[in-house]
Design brief:
Blueprint (H helix, E strand, L loop, with lengths): L1 H9 L1 H35 L10 E2 L9 H7 L2 E2 L1 H34 L9 H14 L1
Antiparallel strand pairs: 1-2
Helix pairs in contact: 2-4
Length: 137
């Protein structure tokens, strides 16, 4: 069982997946910062200085707070602004991944378009070519 486990872990696909998950997690943090710290403040400034993250509907009469964090402490809330922010994060992440995949596909197409080196002719054809060249001299 230990040997099988070692073989499973040593496979390239498992290692590639592990690297992908780690890089994906780090990339997610970058996108979250990009949207939360750069894009959303600009969108908020364009639309009158509001912040999507504090848009919510109280689901309890006890909720009187004006910020989402404080409102959650008071009771149940429908945090649609937070959902909008997460949806924008997703769209940005999907767009960046699309551009990356498109770039890789373009590189692959260029590699496929390169003409392959001509294959060496069979031995009998080479021999006949040498004989022909000798006869020409």
């Amino acid at each position: 069982m230990l040997k099988e486990f070692k073989e499973f872990i040593a496979k390239g696909n498992v290692m590639d997946l592990a690297v992908g998950v780690i890089i994906g997690g780090a990339f997610g943090l970058i996108v979250k910062s990009l949207t939360g710290d750069i894009i959303m403040p600009i969108v908020g400034a364009i639309f009158g200085g509001f912040d999507f993250s504090d848009y919510f509907i109280p689901l309890s009469g006890a909720v009187t707070a004006t910020t989402l964090e404080a409102a959650r402490e008071q009771g149940a809330v429908f945090a649609y602004g937070n959902f909008i922010t997460v949806a924008i994060n997703f769209l940005i992440l999907a767009w960046i991944i699309f551009l990356m995949v498109k770039g890789v596909n373009n590189l692959r197409r260029k590699e496929e378009e390169k003409p392959a080196a001509p294959a060496a002719p069979p031995a009998d054809v080479q021999l006949l070519t040498e004989i022909r060249d000798l006869l020409k001299k």
